[in-house]
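The instructor's notes for this session suggest beginning with a concrete chain rather than abstract definitions. Hand out the sequence below and ask the class to guess, before any prediction is shown, which regions might be ordered.
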Amino acid sequence: MAATDSSQSRNREVFHRFNEMTVAGELDRLEEVLDPEYTQVIPQCGELVRGVENIRSLERYGQEQGNVGGFRVGHVVESQPADLMVPGFGMPMPTFNLVRVRDEGETLTAYGTTTYPDGSEWYVVTLVVFRHHRILRQTSFFAPVFDAPEWRAPWVERLPMDTEE
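After discussion, reveal the predicted structure:
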């Protein structure tokens, strides 16, 4: 059964509220947006975070360290309301530039770029699964930006780095 536009819009709102809450340090409110059986997977480093309390503790520890934690949105490329622009903490955290969000039924795919304090740029793709308008599972992939090899130039076109074709 396909979700309605209203359902998709609501799931997108939940996704953005989750990011806003982690950045704003509103970690005591995560139950509003996370399913009780929430999991977060980061395949590249082999990590699984299971449960709301573990993600809350992980985010809290990162914020206390002042150099890791939730993403702050520096620039939204997709056409979304301006209220998605959330302030940072004034500490060395990555700046996440949301490029595109696509939601279909109970799934949402978001991708963007992030710039770390050392200046390195990475692409981030997050796959989100919802249950009853709460985030059930989130899987995130991180890939560094790199220069395309010159030998491929005769067969490819260069894309702008901040949009999706």
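Then share the key points. Residues 67-92 have pLDDT under 50 and may be disordered. Strands lie at 34-42, 47-50, 72-76, 95-104, 107-115, 121-131, 134-144.
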